[in-house]
Specification:
The protein is of the alpha+beta class. Helices cover about 25% and strands about 10% of the residues. It is built from nine helices and eight strands. A hairpin with a 5-residue loop joins strand 6 and strand 7. The longest helix is centred in the N-terminal third of the chain and has 27 residues, at about 85-110. The chain is globular.
Amino acid sequence: MLSKTHDKPFFAALGIRKPHMSWVVPDAYCRRFPLDRIVYPLGALDTERTTLATNADVADLGGAGRATLSQFPTDHLKVAAAGKWKALIRAYLACVAEADDAIGVAMKGVLDGPNVSNTIIVIWSDHGWQLGEKLAWRKFTLWERALRVPVIFAGPRIAQRSENALFSTIDLYKTLCDLAGVDQPADLDGVSHAAFLTRKNGKDARDSVVSTWALETGSPPQAGKAAKNAHLKDIHFSVRRASARLIAYGTGERELYDHKTDPWEWRNIAGQPGSKAAIDRLIAACPRDAVAPAWEKSEVVDD
């Protein structure tokens, strides 16, 4: 597909499963990352105390933040008890390396073919992954490590540079349509970053990015004809601007992180003097009339 001549424009998509679990790859990839050279993730301040009650990295979290971590309470305990933290990080890195090689195979098909001069290429991930930061080993959180993703654009007119820009994956559709010069539906969400990508010093198309999650923080659902997710306390939001992140839980709790001084979100400063003004600015980006996703309203537990 990528190395052949086509008589009309084409779209090709390649999905790579790794580094999704399970983290199993040929041993050659593991050998690229010797255990004695593996270091703990920078966000993992306290690798010795493994419970929510004692760990220093979660001491400043409220009840809703701790509920986030209690979804999979045995993950970190098992990792710590087995002494496998570094081994798991190596396995994750090995899977990323295998994914990189797979992308390389696809890129060779483009570079060796006739379409390299007029093909737009995008590489991105659907979410991040926590490797023990805040005692979390998964993706189901609203912190930086779980929400930040790599996004790479290449192609005609796209400037060669690397920047930390605010981007949402819902922006991909509009951006690609504008870059390719094709029509797009009028009701698309998201914004286009085409102007940003094609100018060497383009202005960010966004001043904030909002992530949403309906976290189960209430009591378990009752048997009978009750909505499956009637126990959802509320919908939670994470708002990221260039210099800060706010997590606004449906419980009313807030977490605020200053990325100028705390890029790994070690210190929740929501309760400190002067934080209210920053919280008010960030929370203005949240939807005012948020509702649960349609699947939550339609699924019913029946007798």
